[in-house]
Amino acid sequence: MSAPVAETSAAPANTRSRVILASLIGTSIEFYDFYVYATAAVLVFPTLFFVNADPTIALLQSFAVFGVAFIARPIGSIVFGHFGDRVGRKGTLVASLLTMGIATFIIGILPTALTPGWEILAPALLVVMRFGQGLGLGGEWSGAALLATENAPAGKRAIWGTFPQLGAPIGFILANGVFLILSSTIDADAFLAWGWRVPFIASAVLVIIGLYVRLKLIETPAFTKVVEQGEVAKLPLARVFRTSWRPLILGTFIMLATYVLFYLMTTFTLTYGTTATDAPVAGLGYSRESFLIMLIIGVVFFGIFTLVSGPLAERFGRRRTLIITTIGIIVFGLLFVPLFAGGTIGVMTLLIVGFTLMGLTFGPMGAVLPELFPTNVRYTGSAISYNVASILGAALAPFIAVALWQGAAGSPVLVGVYLSLAGAITLVALIISKDTGDVAYTDNAK
Fold first, then answer.
1. Domains of the chain as residue ranges with CATH
2. Averaged over 230-234, what is the pLDDT?
3. Are 368 and 149 a contacting pair, CB within 8 Å?
C-alpha cells in the first residue's frame, strides 16, 4: 500500500455531473441485468429450464446456474482488468457494458426446455449466457468505481465512490419493479409463456443509453498520469500478485460479509417468503407480488444508506465505519429467525434493517477496494478482490442457504448463523487492515 501523501488538487478531466451519471447509469444497468436473472431464477427458471426435476432440485439447479456468473466474474476481472490497466478505464467500461448487455438480451429470446428439441440445449445456452453476464460484471464494477474515485476531489473519494454503488439498489428496484408490473398485469400462464422475457429484452434500451453516456467520457487523470510517466504495467495480473498479494486477500475478505448479506436479503428471502406455509419445507406463504413490494421498500433503505455511508466513511474513517457495520451484521444474523417469526411487521423490520446494513457496508467499498492498490494495477487488483469475494460470498450463498433451510436437519436459524460467521471473517480482515483514506491516489511506486 502506498505511503500517505497529499492528494493532487488538479481539476478532474470529467465534470462531476458526467462522472456521476456515467458511473451510476453503468452499474444500474449492469445490476439491473444481473437482478433480472436473480429474480427469474426464483420465479420462472425452475419451471421453464429444469422441467424434469422435483421442485427443490429444480430450484437448486437454477441457483447453480445463477452461480455460474460468479465463477465467470473473476475471469472477467482478469480480462477487463488487464485492458483497464493497459489501455484505459473508458474503453474497458464500454466493452464490459456491451458484454453484459448482449448476454442479457439473448437470454430474453432463448427457447426454453419446454420447446421440443431444446430440452438439453436450452439449459446449456442459459449457462453460456449467464457466464457472459458474469464476465461483463466482472469488469464493470471496478471500472465504474475507478471512474468515480479517480476523478474525485481531495477528501471526497468515499463520497464519490458511492455513486457507482448506488447502481445496485437502483438496478434491483428497476428489475423487480418490471417483474412486479408484469406479474400484476398479466396472468400466470402469460407470464410463464412470454412475460418473463420482457425485462431481459428491454435491457437493450438501457444499454444504448449507457453506451451514449460512457462514450462521452474523458480518461481519468490518474490513469493519464500513469501513461505520461511510462508506468503502465505490461502484465497487470502478474504485477498485482507479485506486489499486492496482501491487499488482494484482505480486499476479498473485507467484501465477504457484504456479498453474503445482500444475496441472502434478496434471493433467499424471496424464496423463503414466497414458499407456501403448507409446503414440505414451509416458508412464509406470501404472494410473489406482495413480497416483491416488501423487498423494493427494503431496497429503498439500501439506496439511502449507501449515500449516507460516504460522508460517514470520510468523517470517521473507512475502517472504523465498516467495523461497526460488520458487528451490526453479525448481530443481525442471530436475529434472522425472531424477525421472520414476527409476522409482516417482523419481516418488514428484517428487510429494512438488513438493507440498511447493506447500504452502510456496500457504500464505502467503492473507495476502499481501489485504495488498496497503486494506480497501474488498481483496475485489476480491485476487480479481482471484488469478484473472488463474489464467489465465496454470493455464488454459494443462495445454494448454501437453501440447503441449510431445506436439509434433513435444516432451519432458517442456520441461515442466520451462516451470515454471522461470514461477518466474523470480515471483521477479522478489517481489524488487521489499515484505513485507506489517506493514501495517495496517483502513486505507482510498487
1. 16-432 (1.20.1250.20)
2. 90
3. no
